[in-house]
Design goal:
- This is RxLR effector protein.
- There is one protein chain.
- The chain is mostly helical.
- It folds into four domains: 79 residues, no CATH class; 130 residues, no CATH class; 76 residues, no CATH class; 111 residues, no CATH class.
- Helices cover 68% and strands 0% of the residues.
- It contains 26 helices and no strands.
- The chain is elongated.
């Protein structure tokens, strides 16, 4: 019976057959013979090499054989794929897995202890199983850390923490794994196994936050929903809820989640007045909004911008006054300057950078001293100077970079008068102008000497 396939079927494999003709030829011969295949394959391989040197007559035949082998191999793969999903294959896999585990358990007794731990971990052995194998199962929990094999026990349980995390074990399941069921309060936290529970949940809280899980779902998972709000903060698991919410706040800040959306996420969007303020999640919301207020103040955001961000745009009268966010708008009106200055100092914003942010270069020199933006600038310059003088006089060597060597002539001229008005010491003015290390000769040739003279003239 001829094995030759039609050109249409062989076309996809022709280029492959030409590149690996010899190997395909050997495979084809191996499939097609039932005798002593080793000898036959070797002989035909040698014959093929000779034929290749003589001409192309046999090459075409070998390519056809190679293509046939490729088709047969493809059909075999398809058959295996079907078999792989069959019940027979799955049963066989389970049997092999069980046999492997049984074998590894039998040989584990002859292994060093660290190798045993790996075998037990690979076989998914429970903490109680390992505790028994280490002859610690009859020890009282209080004496666990004093056992001679405790270090191996500690290594094994620590090794399980990422496994539990991968399998997303719930707090209750971890409690069961560690044999902590029925314990609470001091009895729980003093148990030697509690440290594993604590380490697991601290890390899981960050995972939950990264996934932006529902706050109520986490309350249920931690069994905090069944504890009265008034005493909830005293519960052992409350720490992990706080860690979770703190992680949420960082994530929301990084992703610029609106305060309105955060109100919904914290289940506060349908509450008002005293009911809102007494909700256990309100403190988190208040903190989140306050951090946004500070950032908006530092960025010199407009009043209209803040009104929109707080969800107050278009609201009038009673609707505005009863909105839960109106209190934050009033807070910003009173504290914007303080928020901005504190953050600018923390960020080492120089007086020249403040000058640019406030766009004072565009304000006419005549009207500038009476403008609100100039008052903001002047106050910030004095804050910077006060901080720098205090640090220098205390002997601090690592000074913040609050002096800008690229300051514009206009800004330096204005600042010279501020220094004079505040009676800043001459050494500090020289320091601010980069003149403190110059002698009398080089001082007068320095570019900033003119501003030092303006300071002296205004001061006197």
């Amino acid at each position: 019976m001829s094995m030759k396939a039609s050109p249409a079927i062989l076309t996809p494999f022709n280029s492959i057959a030409r590149e690996t003709t010899k190997k395909r030829f050997l495979r084809a011969e191996h499939v097609g013979n039932t005798g002593d295949n080793t000898t036959q394959d070797t002989n035909r391989g040698d014959d093929f090499n000779e034929d290749a040197e003589i001409g192309n007559a046999n090459t075409s035949e070998s390519e056809e054989r190679g293509d046939t082998a490729a088709i047969q191999k493809l059909q075999s793969l398809k058959t295996f794929e079907k078999f792989k999903h069959s019940k027979t294959f799955k049963a066989l896999s389970r049997s092999m897995s069980k046999a492997t585990n049984t074998f590894s358990e039998k040989i584990s007794s002859a292994l060093p202890m660290k190798s045993k731990l790996k075998v037990w971990s690979n076989n998914g052995k429970s903490v109680s199983f390992v505790r028994k194998e280490l002859e610690m199962d009859k020890l009282d929990d209080a004496l666990l850390t004093q056992a001679k094999n405790f270090q191996f026990y500690d290594d094994y349980v620590t090794l399980q923490l990422p496994v539990w995390a991968k399998n997303e074990l719930t707090p209750k399941e971890v409690i069961a794994e560690l044999g902590l069921q029925g314990l609470s309060g001091a009895a729980l936290t003093s148990n030697p196994n509690f440290k594993y529970y604590d380490e697991y949940l601290v890390k899981q809280a960050l995972v939950w936050a990264k996934k932006d899980l529902d706050v109520d779902d986490i309350l249920v998972s931690l069994d905090l929903n069944i504890i009265p709000v008034a005493v909830r903060s005293k519960a052992v698991n409350f720490k992990y809820y706080e860690e979770f919410v703190a992680g949420l706040m960082r994530s929301w800040t990084d992703n610029d989640v609106s305060v309105i959306d955060v109100m919904k996420k914290l289940k506060l969007n349908k509450l008002t007045g005293e009911t809102l303020e007494k909700h256990p999640n309100y403190k988190y919301y208040k903190n989140y909004v306050k951090n946004n207020l500070k950032a908006w103040a530092a960025d010199l955001k407009s009043y209209e911008f803040v009104v929109a961000k707080l969800g107050l745009r278009g609201k009038r009268g009673e609707l505005l006054q009863t909105h839960p966010n109106v209190v934050f708008l009033e807070k910003l009106k009173k504290s914007a300057d303080r928020y901005r200055e504190k953050i600018w100092l923390q960020q080492s914003v120089t007086s020249y950078e403040a000058w640019k942010r406030l766009e004072l270069e565009r304000v006419h020199a005549i009207t500038r001293p009476n403008s609100p933006t100039y008052a903001m600038y002047e106050h910030y310059v004095n804050l910077v100077d006060d901080a720098m003088v205090k640090l220098i006089e205390s002997g601090e060597k690592n000074l913040p970079k609050l002096i800008d060597t690229n300051a514009s002539p206009k800004e330096l001229s204005v600042k010279a008068y501020i220094w004079a008005e505040k009676q800043r010491p001459e050494w500090y003015v020289k320091f601010s102008l980069g003149l403190e290390k110059l002698d009398e000769t080089t001082l007068k040739d320095a570019a900033n000497y003119v501003y030092y003279m303006r300071y002296l003239d205004a001061k006197n």
